[in-house]
Amino acid sequence: MVESTPEQSNTHSSPPAEADLSPAPSPTADSAVGSAGSESSYGASLLSEVKNYKYENGRRYHSYREGQYVLPNDEMEQDREDLLHHIRSLLFQGRLYHAPLKKDISAAFDIGTGTGIWAMDFADEFPSTKVIGTDLSPIQPVWIPPNIEFFVDDAESDWTFKKGSFDFVRACDLGGAIADWAKLLQQTYEHLKPGGWIELLDFAMDLHSENGSPEQQAPHAMEFFRHLKEASSKFNRPMDVAGNHINRLKTAGFIDVEERIYRFPDNPWPTDPILREAGRYNQEATSMGLDSYGTALFSRVLGWNQAEITVFLAAVRKEIQDVRFHLYVNAHVVWGRRPEATGL
Ligand SMILES: C[S@@+](CC[C@H](N)C(=O)[O-])C[C@H]1O[C@@H](n2cnc3c(N)ncnc32)[C@H](O)[C@@H]1O
């Protein structure tokens, strides 16, 4: 039997085939092959494969589908994700979703769940809903609500969940992770119940300023975003996807599509107390994010060495932390629903 670290022992190494998604009495009750507790050699080899993390330039990366995703999965990255969850909570006034969900939904799916922090909050808010979270990395915690289950899975592969089984599917911050958004949305459409909702959240990869030209105030930061767009496109997993999510949902057949755009201040420049607090946290999250986003992409795709990356990111960091400049980025939240009466 494979030893599993505390942070991984509730994560299954493969999602169940044609899963029964009804709420299960225990997190492992309805799992299929390769669960964390399984002694099958298939489960064991898969589990060791997903935990055989890769190290590069001082950061730790996923091993399942190695090299496919360019952000790290180490503690620093997990802290950044959790910090962003807190900032979203502040700016979204505590709401976990924007789609008009009913309280009695039976199944929800968080694609690329990361640390699972949103999925766990959602599971608490919807105690009779079965919540599924998947990720390339088994970095979700042990102590989780009884109505949630995590799996290691590649969302770009064919899903093994039962079609038409989810009331809500959410994907947050997957810009840079997905090569084929049309396929992801098609699978989402097919796996939603008729009338079920999808919600996408992503940052647009552009810097704005409320009190001047961002090009003059933060030239390195502007360059950072240009490099990110160029490198992620070359890598065939573009980061800058947020502005086109509306069209993607409509093209995929979703209806009642709506969008809300939130400003995320880059440092505590706002006078409004909530925005100011969000800016204070976001200054830290953005500082961590520079390394997360830049390190692998700029070295693997643009061929920069580590010293070049460090010097460049230091210049970017200095600019975005300068409270004289009222810099912000936009987060796009887009939601829509599968029509009621159509075939799959
Ligand atoms: C920036 S993090 C966001 C995590 C979480 N959604 C949140 O908002 O806190 C993106 C996550 O997507 C996961 N991911 C990337 N590509 C994936 C894929 N093809 N299938 C499943 N998860 C993936 C990464 O491992 C990472 O945990």
UniProtKB/TrEMBL annotation:
CDD domains: AdoMet_MTases. It comes from Penicilliopsis zonata CBS 506.65. Residues 1-14 have a biased composition (Polar residues). It comes from the Eukaryota. Residues 31-42 have a biased composition (Low complexity). InterPro entries: SAM-dependent_MTases_sf. Residues 1-42 are annotated as: Disordered. Coiled coil: none annotated. Pfam families: Methyltransf_23. Gene3D superfamilies: Vaccinia Virus protein VP39 (3.40.50.150). SUPFAM superfamilies: S-adenosyl-L-methionine-dependent methyltransferases. This is Methyltransferase domain-containing protein. One of its GO terms (molecular function) is methyltransferase activity.
